[in-house]
């Protein structure tokens, strides 16, 4: 079983509400789904979106874990370990 070895990188809570992808909003772009970086709180778009800002942020910042901020979704993903998982409510 593959596990995430970067849980210590979860430093910020999943936000209750977001305006959209911060990078797309800055350039007038569009997005499909939103992710939040759990190291710094940056909200960005998923890989199904034209600009794939969440993946770019992870590569450029070396922040490994994102969580979905879509309503009803509670999963997280570690780019380094290539594993999806659910965090406990306190994280």
Query: What value does the average pLDDT take?
Result: 94
Principal-axes shape call:
globular
Q: In sequence order, what are the helices and strands, one letter per element?
A: HEEHEEE
Helix content: 10-25%
Q: pLDDT below 50 for ≥5 consecutive residues: which ranges? A: none
- CATH architecture classification name: 2-Layer Sandwich
Spatial strand arrangement across the major sheet: 2-1-3-4-5
Strand content range: 15-25%
Number of helices: 2
Find the CATH superfamily.
Answer: Zinc/RING finger domain, C3HC4 (zinc finger)
Radius of gyration: 12 Å
CATH topology: Herpes Virus-1
CATH class label: Alpha Beta
Question: Could you characterize what this model shows?
Answer:
It is built from 2 helices and 5 strands. By secondary structure, it is of the alpha+beta class. It has one domain: Herpes Virus-1. Strands 2-1-3-4-5 form a 5-stranded antiparallel beta sheet. Strand 3 and strand 4 form a beta hairpin.
């Amino acid at each position: 079983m593959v596990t995430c070895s970067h849980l210590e990188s979860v430093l910020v809570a999943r936000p209750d509400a977001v305006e959209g992808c911060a990078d797309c909003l800055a350039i007038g772009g569009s997005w499909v789904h939103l992710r939040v970086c759990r190291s710094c709180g940056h909200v960005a778009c998923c890989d199904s979106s034209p600009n794939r800002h969440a993946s770019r942020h992870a590569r450029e910042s070396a922040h490994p874990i994102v969580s979905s901020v879509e309503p009803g979704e509670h999963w997280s993903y570690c780019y380094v370990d290539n594993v999806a998982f659910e965090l406990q409510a306190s994280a």
